[in-house]
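lol so apparently i was supposed to do this last week
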Amino acid sequence: PWGIGRWFLAIIGTASAVIAIRANRQLPQLWLEPIKQIINILENPREASTDLPEDRTHPELLRLTSAAARLVDTQREAGNSNIRIDEVLASMSEALFVTDLTGNIEYVNSAAEQLIGCASETLIGETIDDWISVGTDKPVAATAVARPFEAQLRLHDGSTLFISIVVSRIATETDEERLIFAAQNIDDRKKAEQRIRYLARTDSLTKIPNRMQFQHLLQQSIARAKRSKQYAALIYLDIDRFKDINDTFGHSAGDHALETFAERLLALLPEGTTPGRLAGDEFGVLVTGNSSQSEFEERLRSLANQILGTIGQPFEVREEEVFMTTSLGVAVYPRDGYNVIDLIRNADAALYEAKKAGGNCLEFYSHDMNVEAAERLMIKSRLRRAFEHDELRLHYQPKYGLKSGRIEGAEALIRWDQPDQGLLFPSDFIPLAEESNLIVQVGDWVLDKVCADYRRWQEKVPSPVRVSLNLSLRQLQQRRFLEKVRETFEAHQISPTCLELEITETTLMEDTDRTIRILDSLYGMGLHLAIDDFGTGYSSLSALQQFPISALKIDQSFVRDVAIDRDDASFVRTISQMGHSLGQEVVAEGVESEEQLAFLRAEQCDFAQGHLFGDPMTGEEFCEVLVSDNEGTGKYRTLFA
Ligand code: C2E
Ligand code: MG
Ligand code: MG
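anyway here it is w/ magnesium ion bound
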C-alpha cells in the first residue's frame, strides 16, 4: 500500500518546493516559517510535528498545509498497519500464500505450513499450481477473482483437501504487485455435503441413481437431445411376479433379487446409457442416440433382448436356484413425448402392455396405449359410481349334467350395464377392479345378489340348483371374509350348500396356509369349492389336494379343440380320469358344438357349460328355464338324446 503513497508524496513535495521557491522571492517574510515547516514535514514525514501553523489570511498556504498534514497522517497510519499486517499474517488461522503474479510462492504463514504438512522452505520457490488446483487447466493465478471459490489443496503426503480460497492483489513497498491466497479448510463440510448429495441421489440398496436423480438425468438428456436433434429413450422395467419371490423366499431374498437385477443391468449397459431404480421392483434405463430412428429402435431392441437374456439367468437364494424375468416398456423422445412426465407415463403404458402379453418381453409405446390408459382410469372412477346408479347385473349360465341332460348347476357372471355403452363384460372391468379394493365391493355385491335371486327362485322351484360364483384373491385376503359370508347367508336365509365358489389355481397358491384354513371353514359350512380355468396355472394336482376341492373346471382353451386336436383331447381325457380318481367332479367350460359335447360325454366328463346351451341369462330367465327343465320341457333335451 505504501508505493502509491510514495508517489503521491513525491508529487506534492515537488509542488510545494516550487511554491516555496517562488515564495522565497516574492512572498512576505511571515510565509517563510510555515513553508519551512511544511518542507520539513514532507521530507521527514515519520518524525515531524504535524501541528501546523494556521494562517487564515492566505488560503493557498492554508490548503497546502492541511494537504501536507493529511498526507502525513495517512503515511503514519500506513506505517503502523504495515507492522500489524506482518504480525497478523503470521498468526492467522487461515493458510496464506503470497505469490508473484505468475504464481511463484514467496511467503507462506504457519497455518499454511501446518495444513500442507511441511516447512515454508519447501514451499517457497514452487508455483502455487503445484499445490492448489481448481479442476481446470487454467493456472490458479489467472483464476484470481474477488469472491471465494472452492479448490483442492495438495498435501505434502500426497492426499488432497477441499479448501475455500479468496485471492487478493496487493502492491508492495517496492511497487511490485503480489497475490495473496487465503485458504480455509472446508474438507469436512465438503465431504459431508458430498455424502448427503450421494445419499439423496442414490438408491441405498442397489447403489444406482434413485427416482429423483433418474428423472433429473432424463430431463437433462431430453434437453440435450432437443439441442442436438437426437433421440432419448426411456426403457421402463418391472420384474415379473416380484411379489412371488418376496413371499416365497422372504424379504432378504427380495432385496438380493433387486441387487442382482441392478448389478446385471450395470454390467451389460453400454457407455452412454444410465440405469436407475424408480420404485420397488421398477427400474429405468436411459438411452440416447443420434442415428436414424429405425437404427435407434434396432439398438433399443437388441439392448432389450440382451437385458431379457441376462436377467433370465437363474440366481441363488439359500442354495436354491431362483428364476426372475422382467418386462420392458419403451418410450422415445421426441416421438412419444416431449417431457419427463409424458415419457414416463408412456413408457409405463407400454410396460403395462408387455405385462398383459404375459411378461418377459418388450413393448414400444404406441398412441393407442395412452387412449387405453386414460380409458382404464375413467372406467375405474365410473365403476365406483356404478353401485350408486345400480348399473351392475348378474347373469347366469346353466351347467348341464352330461349323464342326465338336465340343468344341475349354474355360474353367476357379472355384467355392467352402462347407460350409453351397453353391456360391458367382466374382462373389461374385473382386472381393473382387481387393481384396487373395488373388487371387494364387487364381490360383496355379487354374493348378496346371488342370495337374493336364489331366495326368489325358491318360491317357484322347490330346490334350485347349486350356483357358482367367482372369487378374486383380494376377497379371500379380507380379514373378515368368513364372517361376511356367514352374515350374508343368514340375512337372506340361504343355506351355504346352495353355493359353490370358483377360485383359480394362482389365487389358491397365493398364501397357502391361510387359504387352506379359510376354505376348510367354508367347506365345513357346506359350501362347494371349484378350481376355475384349470390347466392355465402352474400348480400340480398334488399341491391342489391340500384344498377341499369338489370340482375341476377345465378351461375353455382346452375344450375348444378337443374334437380336432389330439393333445387337447388327451389333456381333457387325463384331467377327467385324474379328477375322478381324486373324487372330484369335472366340468368342461366353453362348450360350443355338438362334437365337443359328444367327446366330453364319451370321456365321462360330468358337466358342460357353454354357448351350445345359449347365452348367459338374467335371473328371471334362468328361473323360467329351470322350471321348464324340471317339467321335462327343456329346450336342449334333444342334444342328449
Ligand atoms: P370364467 O369364470 O372362466 O367364466 C366363463 C367365461 O366364459 C364367461 O365369460 C362366460 O360368458 C364365457 N363363456 C361361457 N360359455 C362360453 C362359450 O361357449 N364360448 C365362449 N367363447 N365363452 C363362453 P365372462 O362372463 O366374460 O367372464 C369372464 C371372466 O370374468 C370369468 O371367467 C370370471 O373369471 C370373471 N368373472 C365373471 N363374473 C365375475 C364375478 O362376479 N366376480 C369375479 N371376481 N370375477 C368374475
Ligand atoms: Mg368361473
Ligand atoms: Mg373359467
